[in-house]
User: Which sequence fits this backbone?
């Protein structure tokens, strides 16, 4: 690969932006804020990721998806690095990501520690069912207006 | 291994083995919890613990060298090489006992991990920073459940008191410091656990009071897990289950 043919960092970010989160496909990996850095060291592309939760079973799938996507765009020398500190926080989720989550039926994380409204009907009458939900990043809530249960993306 | 590396290795095994063995125990509840929400909560807690194990034992393997991995440490060591406290290897008992043990352990972690985020060892600080976020909601949940069941029905109260009576003698080991701890203190890597006892007693005392439970009078402590000197008979049984696949089919991968 000659220097001219090396894809720009911006292109890489765009490609990464098209990879859906394996557990919540409505949002992308960049929406989730887990990709911390994209850079070249010599002609090797280094993508640095941080896990959402220590035991998140999606971590290895995410690595595989990134590798598959970037290789399909012609990246040959690629290294994925894990960075634990600073620890992932829901503050890194993009505004776009939050809106997509809500549209998908998952209440986005809030600094107050709970959803502000039901993602289905918009009512503020909500109650917590359990601190844990279908994936490590979510808790279970219920709307007392429309009676629908929903997931809330925990704020950490 | 140089003496200071050996001490660091032992410290990392203690951290990793506590998470690993408790994570495995908690995972035994998967599909058996009294209600669906609790089943999911237990499985998620186990998952967090196993995830933290990968960091601790991953670093331990790195310190050990010889191209060892976290998996080698988890699946190819024998009982006497494990450095977890006895508390986490005890069988689950009933749901109340499982949650009481979780609370007694979470409370300790919630006090230790914030200190470790200031460790002179940057990898330990990073793992602690990550794990601490998870422990924060683990302890919130286990404390809530201990209060809910302790200050619950006559039956749930009696069971939680029995759980506390059974498990309290295993609390002291968390604070029984030795040479490894002195070496960690000297290197600025970790605090002497004995210095965390007052804060632990205050936190645990407050929650157990709210749960209308009485802490047993005796401060007798079963020890031998974190030094590896004497594990209970239960750890070997746990390992036969956990390590079965790697023992039967060495080197098997997904
Ligand atoms: Zn609603």
Assistant:
């Amino acid at each position: 690969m000659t220097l001219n043919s090396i894809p720009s960092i911006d292109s890489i970010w765009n490609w990464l932006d098209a990879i859906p989160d394996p557990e919540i496909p409505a949002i992308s990996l960049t929406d989730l804020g887990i990709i911390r850095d994209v850079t070249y060291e010599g002609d090797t592309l280094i993508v640095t990721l941080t896990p959402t939760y220590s035991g998140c079973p999606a971590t290895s799938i995410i690595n595989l998806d990134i590798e598959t996507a970037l290789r399909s765009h012609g990246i040959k020398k690629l290294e994925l690095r894990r960075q634990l500190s600073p620890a992932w926080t829901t503050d890194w989720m993009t505004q776009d990501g939050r809106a997509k989550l809500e549209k998908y039926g998952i209440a986005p994380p809030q600094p107050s520690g709970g959803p502000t409204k039901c993602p289905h009907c918009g009512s503020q009458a909500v109650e917590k069912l359990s601190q844990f939900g279908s994936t490590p990043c979510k808790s279970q809530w219920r709307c007392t207006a429309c009676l629908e249960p929903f997931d809330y993306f925990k704020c950490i | 291994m140089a003496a200071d590396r050996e001490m660091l290795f032992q410290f990392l095994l203690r951290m990793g083995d506590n998470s690993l063995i408790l994570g495995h125990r908690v995972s035994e509840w998967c599909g058996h919890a009294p209600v669906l929400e609790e089943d999911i909560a237990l499985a998620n807690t186990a998952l967090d613990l196993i995830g933290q194990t990968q960091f601790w034992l991953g670093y331990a393997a790195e310190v050990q060298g010889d191209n060892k991995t976290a998996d080698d440490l988890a699946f190819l060591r024998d009982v006497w090489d494990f450095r977890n406290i006895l508390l986490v290897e005890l069988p689950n008992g009933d749901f109340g006992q499982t949650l009481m043990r979780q609370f007694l352990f979470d409370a300790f972690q919630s006090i230790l991990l914030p200190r470790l985020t200031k460790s002179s060892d940057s990898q330990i600080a990073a793992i602690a920073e990550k794990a601490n976020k998870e422990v924060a909601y683990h302890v919130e949940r286990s404390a809530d459940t201990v209060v809910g069941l302790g200050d619950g029905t006559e039956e749930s109260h009696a069971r939680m008191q029995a759980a506390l009576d059974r498990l309290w003698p295993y609390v002291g080991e968390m604070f029984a410091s030795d040479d490894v701890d002195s070496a960690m203190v000297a290197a600025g890597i970790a605090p002497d656990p004995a210095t965390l006892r007052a804060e632990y007693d205050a936190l645990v005392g407050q929650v157990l009071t709210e749960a209308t439970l009485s802490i047993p009078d005796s401060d007798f402590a079963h020890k031998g897990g974190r030094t590896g000197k004497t594990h209970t008979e239960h750890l070997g049984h746990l390992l036969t289950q956990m390590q079965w696949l790697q023992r039967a089919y060495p080197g098997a991968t997904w």
Q: What stands out?
A: Chain A is about 25% helix and 25% strand.
